[in-house]
Amino acid sequence: MPKETETFSSEGGASLHTVMIVEDDVHIGAFLVEAITEETPYHALLVGSSAEALERLKSLKPNLLILDYHLPGIDGLRLYDKVHEIPEMQEIPAIMMSARLPQRELQKRSIVGINKPFDLDDFLQKVTELLKA
Predict the structure, then answer these.
(1) Selection from 36, 87, 38, 39 nearest residue 64 by Cα
(2) How far is CA 130 from CA 18, 49, 70, 73, in A?
């Protein structure tokens, strides 16, 4: 079941940035939601598959995608391509995570790659950089 967490900025208002995390490992996904919730002012939404992400994107436009590369069905790279075929979502940046990443494909698409296991501070810094860009 997807977990949604709304966070609030230090100014007291609801965060305007939504991060969609597409991760089939519920423990990793919950860890990422918790880290973003506790360490940033952003809203984090966890979905467990590419199909679920595509369904949620019909009613939600996130500001950042965090994608696992090895997802069941459609892998993270193909999911990124499908999302960016939608005209209003072509500018959404992405972070892709996996133990092994297709670096050339990530570079072609300007996707930030993070190898698992990763340093949490580095991960959160990348999230912040992409949302401030």
Answers:
(1) 36
(2) 12, 23, 22, 27
Question: Please, are residues 43 and 37 in contact by the beta-carbon 8 Å criterion?
Answer: no
Residue pLDDT, tens place only, 34-69: 999 999 999 999 999 999 999 999 999 999 999 999
> Which H or E run includes 112?
strand 112-115
Amino acid at 106: L
Q: Mind listing the pLDDT tens digit for each residue in 4-18?
A: 433 333 333 444 799
pLDDT for 66-101, tens place per residue? 999 999 899 999 999 999 999 999 999 999 999 999
Residue 44, C-beta contacts closer than 8 angstroms, at least 6 positions apart: 4, 5, 7, 18, 19, 21, 32, 33, 36, 37
As a whole number of angstroms, the distance between CA 129 and CA 29 comes to 20
